[in-house]
Design a protein that fits this description.
By secondary structure, the protein is an alpha/beta fold. It has two domains: 165 residues, D-Maltodextrin-Binding Protein, domain 2 (3-Layer(aba) Sandwich); 91 residues, Periplasmic binding protein-like II (D-Maltodextrin-Binding Protein, domain 2). The strands form four sheets. Strands 1, 2, 5, 6, 7, 8 and 16 form a seven-stranded mixed β-sheet that branches. It is globular.
Length: 294
């Protein structure tokens, strides 16, 4: 997320559970309409407001415009639902679900991992992306890091993004990780020597490295993390409040038209570096992910 050699940090400070958020639209409070009425309210307004954390290439601000693969999906889907405009509110990743619950936005656009504990707080769409983890290290990978276990085995100093799944991986493995607010902060931690490695989704790290070619870093091969010998199959989706079932159902109906058509899917998200590898497995449902049945 960002242009070449950009070092700008675009993460708004969050005080308490959720407070201030920078917005692209100037809106800081969405319509308080509850239940199934929200979809009709969005149609009437012609605008849906999404929360995003500035993690490219999922959702980010570029040249003053909201961009990214999840944003592209949302523009397609909401347009088909009769909602022409997608606006954004930027906040820290860890504040996205609290911000959604506080009605600061109508949905979360971040490719957020579908996890049982998150499903207790909010409603997820069916999977939109499959993903794997990778590591950003100094050029030459001096510690020879390859996965989360290697970080633990070598006592490496690792940075993870607050609220991201890699933070959970580190905690599960007993790794003392430094929390950072954005991908840029994670890369800065590596280049400054504060951390040996930054763990995040592979597609995000590759985008970050490609858009900062002068940074003395490299990205390892991606991997599926293992916790207690169990592969952590990752998939992300859009997040809604639990009291908006009609909106969720309508969204999923349109989403299936895209994820069931490889060419259509890639025509929407391909420009952001997504490939057929990120196309969701139709057998991997949100119900299974929320139940931890994977």
């Amino acid at each position: 997320m960002g242009t070449k050699k950009s070092r700008a940090r675009a993460i708004a400070l969050v005080a308490g559970a959720v407070l201030t958020a920078a917005t692209l639209s100037g809106c800081t409070k969405t319509d308080t309409t509850a239940g199934g009425d929200l979809l009709q309210s969005l149609k009437d307004k012609g605008t849906v407001t999404v929360g995003f954390a500035g993690e490219a290439p999922y959702s980010f601000q570029q040249n003053g415009e909201l961009s990214g693969a999840t944003v592209a999906l949302h523009r397609e889907i909401f347009r088909n639902l009769g909602v022409e405009t997608v606006d954004g509110v930027q906040t820290d990743f860890g504040a996205l679900i609290p911000g959604l619950q506080a009605q600061r936005f109508d949905a979360v656009s971040a490719g957020m991992s579908i996890l049982p504990e998150r499903c207790e707080q909010a409603a997820f769409s069916e999977p939109e992306f499959m993903y794997t983890t990778a590591l950003m290290v100094k050029q030459g990978n001096p510690l020879g890091l390859t996965d989360m276990q290697s970080i633990k085995d070598k006592g490496a100093k690792v940075a993870v993004m607050t609220g991201a799944i890699e933070s959970d991986y580190a905690a599960s493995l007993g790794i003392d990780a430094t929390q950072v607010g954005s991908p840029q902060d994670g890369m800065d931690a590596v280049t400054s020597g504060r951390s040996d490695v930054f763990a995040l989704t592979a597609i995000s790290l590759n985008w970050l490295a490609d858009h900062n070619p002068d940074a003395p870093v490299e990205v390892t091969e991606s991997f599926v993390a293992e916790i207690d010998g169990k592969p952590q199959i990752g998939a992300g989706g859009t997040v809604f409040r639990t009291d908006n079932p009609d909106l969720l159902e309508a969204y999923n109906t349109e989403l299936r038209k895209i994820t069931s058509d490889k060419d259509k899917y890639l025509s929407i998200v391909g420009e952001f570096g997504f490939t057929e590898a990120e196309l969701p497995d139709p057998e991997l449902t949100t119900a299974k992910l929320c139940a931890g049945d994977i």
